[in-house]
Amino acid sequence: MTPQSHFVVVAAIAPGREAGLRKLLATMTLAPGTADPANAVLPFGAFERLHFARFAILGDATMADFEVFGLPRPKLPTYLLFMGDCDGPAEAQLAEMVQQAGEGLRRVFSHCRGLDLRDDLLEWLIEHDRPVAAPYVNRIGRTVRQIREESALQRVLAARVPRGVRDAAVDPQTLRRDLLNFVRAQQAAGRLLLTPPAPTPLGWRVRNMLHAIGLPLAALLLSPLLLIALPFFLVLLRRHEGGDPEYCPRPRAAAVGEMQELEDHGPSNSFTALGAVKPGRFRCVLVQVLLLAIAWACRHVFGRGHLGRVRTIHFAHWVFIDNKIRVLFASNYDGSHEAYMDDFINKVAWGLNLVFSNGFGWPRTAWLIHQGARRELPFKYYQRGHQLPTEVWYKAYPGLTLSDLERNRRIREGFEQVGMSDAEALAWLRLL
User: What is the pTM of this model?
Assistant: First the structure.
């Protein structure tokens, strides 16, 4: 198994350079926000281990919300975000990009502070790579190569299966045997590949095991202290929930229209949002602890095709910036924006509240998990207000949803299965 990793390069844009940067990023797209995989600046399609990538300009207008409540507005720079999800180490992916498209990357980041022509570009990118506080991968170990090969297998098989396979219409064992023989002939001729999964790196397995037992063990050892602290925490929590400002104004129609112009150019979309953590040490510590727990759950509980009850998210990331003053959230998901938000409201509103109730202005919660995102209009106004345009967004397998990926995975498993009953063979044929 090849585990996935992520890079999150965040660099402050130099004064007076934002307009030029936007023009350059626009040359990398086929449609608004949608990357041209063969663009001359950074040809994303040339990198066989890259699942998703994006460029976004992080200029957060919501910082003005502080002034509504008589609080000083934090003065923070506008950043350029370069984010990607890849198979294997992120540093190796960045090195490959620098090797093959270093001139284009240098053109992009020349609009940012601190990059000199004499600087080693790879070292500079690694220096600006921010750690992901909590990453989510829909199915850990599913590679770009696997996705593409399984999609090709599905297309080859589907073209040879009669539409509307019925019990009485075909002998499932005979049809399956014919299909297997055909695919093997295609493999022997080199026209179809089904690459076996690579061995899981030993270092990753060791780190994963230590990570799996580390947090529960620490919680167990600290449980006496945690039980003593729990009443004080609950009192503090309710005090903050009663006094923290709620601010969810309806977003401007023009701003929503700008976002919608970038959405629904295919069955999948990107989401980029940025917001400030509520002032004070309590919220700052709480959000770090909660993201630590979410990172553990994403790695050891989820990562098998679902995030809670939501099955439409490919990758998601929570990232601290500005010395933990703000949190960046970015995801790649299937379906429309409205359906994505409704999924969260109906299925994991409590999970949203856990983290985002620590964000300045979030709809008021009770006991950390109640209310908040369940209040539909305030929540939808809030998330649209904090959403930022993704100027350039790349997906390695356009047109394929997670449902397609899961179906194709089951097709391959059925192809590689040694024997099947008639019922199993018929169920497998119906996947095609």
Answer: 0.94
